[in-house]
C-alpha cells in the first residue's frame, strides 16, 4: 500500500475566529483597498493610456449610444412603459457600471428579456388595479415637456392599492411597479454578493439559458405582432399568453391597419438586408451601420409630414418629455407585491451579465470578479430605481458591437451615456410621430440571433441528446407557460437529468487488452481477452442511496450470479438432504445418490473465484454506498468468492475506512484494496 501523507487537523473554530478578526479589523490600508475594490474605476482610470485607448473608446461609445436610443424607445413597448423611462435606464446603468464593473467590454443597459419580465409584472399589477391594458389610446397633443406630459394624464384614479391612497394614473402606477420591482431585484443581487451566492449561476446550464432566451424571444415576437399589423387587442396576461395572443390576433386580423402593415414590411426588409450585409462584410467595415437610427429618422419624417396618425390612424409613440423627473423613493408596499417576481429577475440579470463578462475577459486575457459584478449589477438596479428606471443587464448584441468598434475600457459606456443624455435633454420630442410598428420591427429583427437557435437543434441533438431535451423543455415552458415558470422548469429538469444519469449509469464487465496491463469494456472493444476465474466490474457513477439497487442489479446481471439467491438455493437443498439422511434414505429428494446430490447443489458451476470492482469512476460513497460494498463482500464471501477493490480515490478509501469495510485494524486492507486493476487481477490469480 502507498503511504498516505499525514494531514494536520484543522481547528475550524480558530479558523473562523481568525477570519472574523481579520474581517472586522479596520486599518487605513484595508479601508483604502475596500474602497478601490468596490469602485474598480479607481484602480484602472489613473493608469488609462489615453493615446492608445481614447479613439476606440470614443468610437465604440458613439456607436453604442446611437444604437441605444432606438432600442431604448423600442424596448419600452416590452416593459409596458413610456420611452422616457427606457432612456433613463440606459443613461444611469452605463454611468454606474463604469464606476463599479470589472469587465472592460460588456454593455450594460436595457435588455429585451429583462424588459419582457418587467413588462409581465407591470401588466399583471395594472390589471389587478383595474386599469385597461390597451395602450393604443389616441395620443395627447403637447410639446413634449415634462409639465405638459404630467398634465396630459387626465385619466387619474383615486386609488387605495397596497396601502397607497393617492391620485395616480396608469402611467404613474406602472412606473411605480417597475421601480419597486427593480429596487427589490437589486437588493437581492447585493445580498447575494454579500453572502457570496454567485454559485447559484452554476445551476443555469448553457442549454437552460439558450432555451430560456429562445422561449422568451417567441413571447417577445408574439407581443409585437399586434403593433406590426396595427390591430388593437388587449395585452394578454398569465399563463399561456402566447397561445391566447395568437388566437386574438387571428380573430381580429380583419382589422389590420394597411398603413402599419406596409410600413412594417418595408422596415423589416431594410433592417434584415442591412444586418445580413453587415454580417457578411463586417471585416471590411470599421463600425456597424447605424441602420436602426436611419430607419427611425426616416420613418419619423415620413410619419410626421405624411400625417400617418391623423389620416390612417397609425399608432405613434406620442410625446416624450425632455429633462429629468425629480427622484422618488420606490413604494415599500409595492415592493411586497413584487418581492417574489424580483427573484428570477435578479438571477437572470446577474447570470447574463457574469457569463458575458467571463466570456469577453477570457477572450481578451484579463480577469473579472464575479462577486463584484453582482454588486455592480445590483447597484445598477437599486440607484436608478430612485430615478424612474427599470431593471438592466448586459446584452450580447451590443457587447459584440462594442468590441468590434475598438472598445478598450468602460470609458465607452460614459460616451454612450452622453449620447443618451443629449437625446434626453434636447432631441426626445422629435420622436413624437414615430410609429409603434417601426419600433416593433426593430425589436423583432433584434431577435434573429435567439430565433436562429432552432437551426442548431439537429447539431445540438447530434452532440448531446439530453442537453437537447433540456433545451426543448425549457424553451417550450418559457414560451407556452411563462418566462419565470420556464426558467424554473428548465433548472429543475436539468438537475433531474443529472440525478437520472447517476441513478442509471453505464456499467460494464472489463476484458484485458492483449499483451498489456490495461482493461476495457468488453462490449465496446474487439479482441479483448477474458481473465480466467476473475470478473472485473466497472460502475461509472458515485455509489449512493439513489443508485444502490441499480448497482446490485447490474452486478448480478453481468456476472450472471445473484449470491443471495444462490445461498438460499443451497440452504434449501442442504435442508432437504438432511431430512432424507435422518430417514435413513441414501437417496435425496431428486432420486440421486449423496455423491450425485453434491453436484446438483450448483446447477450452474460458478466460473469465477474473484470479483474485481473498478472504482475509478466512483467519485464518492455515502453511508448506503459503503454498506452496499460491505454487503457484497459478505455475500460473495459466503460463496468463497473474494471481492477486490481497484483504483479507489482517497475520499472513497477514507469513506470505506470510516465505515469499517477493512475491519477494525485495517489488517486485511492490502488484500482487499489495489491501486490498479492489473495488480488486483494478479493477486486474484495467485489465490488458491
Number of strands: 11
Termini gap: 22 Å
Mean pLDDT: 85
Low-pLDDT stretches: 136-166, 597-603
Quaternary form: single chain
Cα shape: elongated
Going by helix content, strand content and strand pairing, the class is alpha/beta
Helix content: 55-70%
Please give the count of helices.
28
Percentage beta strand: 5-15%
**Biggest sheet layout:** 7 strands, mixed
Computed CA radius of gyration, to the nearest angstrom:
34 Å
Domain STAS: 524-684
Subcellular location: Apical cell membrane
Family: Belongs to the SLC26A/SulP transporter (TC 2.A.53) family.
Catalytic activity: iodide(in) + chloride(out) = iodide(out) + chloride(in); oxalate(out) + 2 chloride(in) = oxalate(in) + 2 chloride(out); nitrate(in) + chloride(out) = nitrate(out) + chloride(in); oxalate(in) + sulfate(out) = oxalate(out) + sulfate(in)
Task: Set out the fold topology.
Layout: H1 12-24, H2 28-38, H3 41-44, H4 50-79, H5 83-100, E1 108-109, H6 112-128, H7 146-151, E2 156-161, E3 164-169, H8 170-194, H9 206-229, H10 241-251, H11 258-280, H12 291-306, H13 308-312, H14 332-363, H15 370-385, E4 393-394, H16 396-404, H17 411-427, H18 436-446, H19 448-451, H20 457-463, H21 465-480, H22 483-503, E5 507-513, E6 519-521, E7 528-529, E8 533-539, H23 548-559, H24 563-582, H25 594-600, E9 608-614, H26 623-637, E10 642-646, H27 650-658, E11 673-674, H28 677-686
Parallel strand pairs: 8-9, 9-10, 10-11
Antiparallel strand pairs: 1-4, 2-3, 5-6, 5-7, 5-8
Helix pairs in contact: 4-5, 4-6, 4-16, 4-17, 4-18, 5-15, 5-17, 6-8, 6-14, 8-14, 8-15, 9-10, 9-18, 9-21, 9-22, 11-12, 11-18, 14-15, 20-21, 21-22
Amino acid at each position: 500500500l502507498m503511504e498516505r501523507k499525514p494531514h494536520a487537523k484543522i481547528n475550524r473554530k480558530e479558523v473562523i475566529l481568525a477570519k472574523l478578526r481579520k474581517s472586522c479589523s479596520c486599518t487605513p490600508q484595508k479601508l483604502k483597498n475596500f474602497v478601490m475594490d468596490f469602485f474598480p474605476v479607481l484602480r484602472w482610470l489613473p493608469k488609462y493610456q489615453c493615446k492608445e485607448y481614447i479613439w476606440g473608446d470614443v468610437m465604440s461609445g458613439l456607436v453604442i449610444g446611437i444604437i441605444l436610443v432606438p432600442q431604448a424607445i423600442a424596448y419600452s413597448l416590452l416593459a409596458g412603459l413610456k420611452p422616457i423611462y427606457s432612456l433613463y435606464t440606459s443613461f444611469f446603468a452605463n454611468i454606474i457600471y463604469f464606476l463599479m464593473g470589472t469587465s472592460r467590454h460588456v454593455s450594460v443597459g436595457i435588455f429585451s428579456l429583462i424588459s419582457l419580465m418587467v413588462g409581465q409584472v407591470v401588466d399583471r399589477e395594472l390589471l389587478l388595479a383595474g386599469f385597461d391594458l390597451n395602450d393604443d389610446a389616441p395620443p395627447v397633443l403637447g410639446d413634449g415637456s415634462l409639465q405638459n406630459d404630467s398634465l396630459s394624464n387626465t385619466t387619474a384614479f383615486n386609488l387605495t392599492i397596497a396601502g397607497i391612497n393617492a391620485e395616480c394614473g396608469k402611467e404613474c402606477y406602472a412606473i411605480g411597479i417597475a421601480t419597486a420591482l427593480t429596487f427589490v431585484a437589486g437588493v437581492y443581487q447585493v445580498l447575494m454578493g454579500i453572502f457570496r451566492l454567485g454559485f447559484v449561476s452554476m445551476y443555469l446550464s448553457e442549454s437552460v439559458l439558450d432555451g430560456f432566451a429562445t422561449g422568451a424571444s417567441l413571447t417577445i415576437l408574439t407581443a409585437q405582432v399586434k403593433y406590426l399589423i396595427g390591430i388593437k387587442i388587449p395585452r394578454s396576461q398569465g399563463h399561456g399568453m402566447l397561445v391566447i395572443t395568437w388566437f386574438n390576433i387571428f380573430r381580429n386580423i380583419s382589422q389590420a391597419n394597411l398603413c402599419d402593415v406596409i410600413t412594417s414590411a418595408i422596415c423589416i426588409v431594410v433592417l434584415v438586408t442591412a444586418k445580413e450585409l453587415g454580417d457578411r462584410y463586417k471585416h471590411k467595415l470599421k463600425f456597424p451601420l447605424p441602420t436602426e437610427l436611419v430607419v427611425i429618422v426616416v420613418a419619423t419624417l415620413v410619419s410626421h409630414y405624411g400625417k400617418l396618425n391623423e389620416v390612417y390612424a397609425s399608432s405613434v409613440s406620442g410625446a416624450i418629455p425632455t429633462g429629468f423627473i425629480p427622484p422618488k423613493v420606490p413604494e415599500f408596499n409595492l415592493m411586497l407585491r413584487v418581492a417574489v417576481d424580483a427573484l428570477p429577475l435578479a438571477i437572470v440579470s446577474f447570470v447574463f451579465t457574469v457569463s458575458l463578462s467571463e466570456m469577453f475577459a477570457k477572450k481578451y486575457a484579463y480577469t473579472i470578479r464575479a462577486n463584484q459584478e453582482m454588486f455592480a449589477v445590483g447597484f445598477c438596479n437599486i440607484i436608478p430605481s430612485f430615478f424612474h428606471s427599470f431593471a438592466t443587464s448586459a446584452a450580447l448584441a451590443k457587447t459584440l458591437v462594442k468590441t468590434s468598434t475598438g472598445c478598450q475600457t468602460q470609458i465607452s459606456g460614459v460616451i454612450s451615456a452622453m449620447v443618451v443624455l443629449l437625446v434626453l435633454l434636447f432631441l426626445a420630442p422629435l420622436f413624437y410621430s414615430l410609429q409603434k410598428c417601426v419600433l416593433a420591427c426593430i425589436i423583432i429583427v433584434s431577435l434573429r440571433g435567439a430565433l436562429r437557435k432552432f437551426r442548431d437543434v439537429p447539431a445540438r441533438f447530434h452532440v448531446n441528446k439530453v442537453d437537447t431535451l433540456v433545451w426543448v423543455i425549457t424553451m417550450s415552458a418559457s414560451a407556452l407557460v411563462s418566462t419565470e415558470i420556464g426558467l424554473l422548469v428548465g433548472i429543475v429538469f436539468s438537475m433531474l437529468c443529472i440525478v437520472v444519469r447517476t441513478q442509471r449509469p453505464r456499467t460494464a464487465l472489463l476484458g484485458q487488452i492483449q499483451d498489456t496491463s490495461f482493461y476495457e469494456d468488453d462490449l465496446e472493444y474487439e479482441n479483448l481477452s477474458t481473465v480466467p476465474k476473475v470478473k472485473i466490474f466497472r460502475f461509472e457513477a458515485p455509489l449512493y442511496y439513489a443508485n444502490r439497487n441499480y448497482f446490485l442489479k447490474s452486478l448480478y446481471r453481468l456476472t450472471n450470479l445473484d449470491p443471495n439467491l444462490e445461498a438460499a438455493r443451497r440452504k434449501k437443498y442442504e435442508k432437504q438432504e438432511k431430512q432424507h439422511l435422518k430417514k435413513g434414505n441414501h437417496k435425496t429428494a431428486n432420486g440421486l445418490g449423496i455423491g450425485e446430490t453434491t453436484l446438483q447443489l450448483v446447477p450452474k458451476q460458478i466460473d469465477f473465484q474473484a470479483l474485481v470492482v473498478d472504482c475509478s469512476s466512483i467519485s464518492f460513497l455515502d453511508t448506503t454506498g459503503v454498506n452496499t460494498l460491505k454487503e457484497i463482500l459478505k455475500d460473495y464471501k459466503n460463496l468463497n468468492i473474494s471481492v477486490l477493490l481497484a483504483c479507489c480515490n482517497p475520499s472513497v478509501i477514507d469513506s470505506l475506512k470510516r465505515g469499517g469495510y477493512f475491519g477494525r485494524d485495517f489488517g486485511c486492507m492490502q488484500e482487499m484494496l489495489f491501486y490498479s486493476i492489473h495488480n488486483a487481477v494478479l493477486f486474484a490469480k495467485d489465490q488458491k
